[in-house]
DNA sequence: TTTTCTTGTGAAACCCGTTTCAAATCTGTT
DNA sequence: AACAGATTTGAAACGGGTTTCACAAGAAAA
């Protein structure tokens, strides 16, 4: 690969001039400019991003630290972030952590030493804060929130309100016996959703009935089996996310329970498969495109405002499992 | 962030010695070693990967160029690659292209200028070969294949055999009237799967009946509607992938056609949702974990062999849509 | 014509970890 | 004690694009 010095020699100018032509950082004599452009063409020169990044202390890189890219919701989030990043010439470095703090820390450190311009992090381990405090690049937490008086910024959906909407919707569908399969309570979004459901129960004087379940298919089926034993006359289920809702559906059918006739079912996230399953899943949708775009923007445009939290409204998407 | 020179000063040694302590590239006096380690601890020094990469001409980076990370199959593939890469200290740079050649080219160029160690590419645009030819880093094509006498390597599943298996399975389930919804024929995997089906038809003296469909939910539904009009007495459908199979199922149910009783349905890929949908989808599964791992390994271990193609066997996963 | 202000340009320093090479120190031998 | 051989160590160069700074050349003002 040709270097800037070779191009300079060929064009009979200095490397500085080549750099100025490429970046338009200063006016260059038309003749020389043409010679440089020709030399670049001839050598097929492409500036080395690493050298550039070493000097500029910016690699035009955004670190994306996720529990798992295989989770459809996170894949969608990654897609949204990638679109915005690509549009502005930034690239994504993907790190899966399985929610392991040690891996999260290692990834953050690595990203910093790579001169990444910022980190988008989805985690619930608030111990990571000891680390993010030392970060000299912006760290944006998405989907979750454990806000404190630190330098983190948060971009997420109003999960609490989503939880309320889910409960209200089932009630308006005539459910008298709602069970909430809440997600792992150390995950803030799961907690918020649950809190929304809980508050509605209190407001309406409804008995609170819950199960707890990890974000996992098998776990979802296991928990639903247990749910059916414990709450024989359940007629509405709020699942902590669409994956769990889909597993719950499977178990309901296996037990000859008709959906939505006997039991109404609602999930969260509106992953692509939700509208595709049969019957289509009613769910609380997150504006994932906006969330991803905002997170990316905060890094790309070096947001200096003191606003710490960006919250988006959830939306009920009524489909067949509650009709 | 502290630099190696600051650490050196603090430990009263030269930067070279600090480097040697960190990398174990040469023996260092025990006393000095201890002083260096202490200085590193005290300053919280983390070596700058960019500087290292500039000199080493390797950024410990694997470029991953995909049509879309939102496609569950590619997300799974990305997960598999990430696991293997992470294990060996490599990171992934994610580029979505929407199958746009121009974006693919831009991504490859960028990755090369970032000193990436290799590129894993999923594309069907064989014009890209003009570009890959100029690549001085290994390029591994996954899932697809348009092999020629170039420097590319291919890692994929035996789609042809998968196509045969799908057809044979439906026949063995007693289907007399199979329709194959083939994928876009410019995609080699889609072509191979279709060819497998076609050959079985010939071998068994069955009439070939096909539709063509993009890998897209809406497209899948539209095409299935049309299929039902054209082939009134269809009793078996081979969908080009699981996404399309799931959409097909939706349309079948909407038309009061029972699956698997009246029509048996089989997909390809075995994405996570396939076993989760109700009824669970019979599908031809790809060993995606192995495919991803192999692709990553070829880069990480700088495979020098002349073997150009690594092919894995597909596997029938029999579930409820054909029982 | 001389002075002053622009403007274009290249040499060199810079970013920072790694490696080379030669000097310095230490070991062991005679 | 003196010397050959082995081992440690630091100064400096390196990778490659960017930027500073000072000089040169041309333009405008006096």
Which fold does the CATH topology of the largest domain in chain A refer to? Rossmann fold
CATH architectural label of the largest domain in chain A: 3-Layer(aba) Sandwich
Distance between the termini of chain A: 62 Å
Given this structure, which CATH class of the largest domain in chain A is correct? Alpha Beta
Beta percentage of chain A is 15-25%
The strands making up the biggest β-sheet of chain A line up spatially as 2-1-3-4-5-11
Based on DSSP secondary structure assignment, what is the total number of beta strands of chain A?
12
User: How many structural units, i.e. domains of chain A?
Assistant: 3
List keywords for this structure.
323 residues, alpha/beta, 434 Repressor (Amino-terminal Domain), Rossmann fold, 3 domains, 6-stranded parallel β-sheet, elongated, DNA-binding
Structure description:
The structure is a homodimer of 323-residue chains. Chain A is of the alpha/beta class. Chain A has three domains: 4-47, lambda repressor-like DNA-binding domains (434 Repressor (Amino-terminal Domain), Orthogonal Bundle); 57-157 and 288-312, Response regulator (Rossmann fold), CATH 3.40.50; 159-286 and 317-322, Rossmann fold, CATH 3.40.50.2300. In chain A, 46% of the residues lie in helices and 17% in strands. Chain A is built from 13 helices and twelve strands. Chain A has helices spanning 4-11, 15-23, 30-43, 49-56, 72-87, 101-113, 128-133, 159-172, 188-204, 217-230, 242-254, 272-276, 288-300; strands spanning 61-66, 91-96, 118-121, 139-142, 153-157, 178-182, 210-212, 236-239, 264-269, 282-285, 309-312, 315-317. A six-stranded parallel beta sheet of chain A has the order 2-1-3-4-5-11, sandwiched between helices. In chain A, strands 7-6-8-9-10-12 form a six-stranded mixed beta sheet, sandwiched between helices. In chain A, helix 5 (72-87) packs across helix 13 and helix 10 packs across helix 11 (242-254). The longest helix of chain A has 17 residues, at 188-204. In chain A, 49% of the residues are buried. Strand 2 of chain A pairs antiparallel with strand 2 (91-96) of chain B, so a sheet runs across the interface. Chain B binds a DNA duplex (30 and 30 nucleotides) through helix 1, helix 2 and helix 4.
